[in-house]
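TICKET #2291
ISSUE: user wants both folds in one file
ATTACHMENT 1:
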Amino acid sequence: MPTSDQDELPLTPGILAPVAKSYDLALKHYGPKHKAVAWRNEERQQRRFHIFVGLLAYDTARDDITINDLGCGYGAMFDTFKELPQFRDGTYFGYDISRSMIAAAKKEILDPRAIFINSHLATEKADYSFVSGTYNMKMQAHDRDWRDYIEENLVHLWSKTRIGLGFNMLNVQSPLREKTLFYADPDHFIAFCEKYLKGQIRMVDLLHPNEFVIFVRK
């Protein structure tokens, strides 16, 4: 059962080591491009980022929102937020388990509003937290072990979130299947969020049947 005290978890859980290695190799091969973070094309990558922007619609009067991006890769999501009026004086925290990805992000993005941290957990409290694709690649991990990791991770991220959390997952109904990817039941994760996050929950299925996005607001 998930707990809220995630600081006791090891800095880098063993289940994530093969994933970090895979992303290190992909970055070395492709460079800081969409294929390095397992996107078939940049258009779909950007489409998901813009879906996440919808969670900010309630804060149009602000210009200083803070954002956690868990699994930021080379920082591609930052470009989606950097010109938003809500983010004019904001701060973006990008986290990734791949040291190579963090190094690439720091090299590519020099905007002082962006801070990149090598971690599998959010270390800073932010208004909004996003998880884009981070839960999809499980490599050889057993589905149940990977699901347990996701649930623990979500509870911790919620504890670092002031206003809203958005995350996406591959849908178990998807006709596309790869052995190294995790496919989730949206009903299970909606029920999980209702029980453990206890916020206002909305599922976005604009990427149906391959993916779903869940928004939770406090």
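ATTACHMENT 2:
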Amino acid sequence: MTTQVNSIDELQALIGTHVGYGEYLTVTQEAVNQFADATGDHQWIHVDPVRAAAGPFGGPIAHGYMTLSLIPVLLNGVMQVAGVKMGVNYGTNKVRFTSPVPVGSQVRAGSTLVAAEAIPGGAQVTMDVVIEIKDAPKPACFAQIVTRYYT
């Protein structure tokens, strides 16, 4: 279910509120390989399924930064801010990779609104994001992201 926000005042009223979960996304070997090509990180634990099967994780895993980079798609539709021309990624305050993401697993993100501040031309929003692995005992990633919405 999408949390609909219509103003900065409404954003501020949601501080401390868990705003929802996105849909699950399957992490494929193809996506991991494409991320490796884009970043130049071809470490065998990510891109060599045969070698990775004998490695410490029992198979290939997604890059930590790939997991982090999935946040926009994983949060797509969780919160809609009406009346803005654009939203931009302003940064990340804290990131922790707490569990590997095996290729073939499903991940989703949930978020809690931490802060919403008026800035010239819009609002700066800080959210705590948890990326979960379906049926796993621990989340894959915790991140505090900062987004700027411009009106």
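RESOLUTION: both attachments delivered.
EXTRA DETAIL ON ATTACHMENT 2: Residues 29-39 form the longest helix (11 residues).
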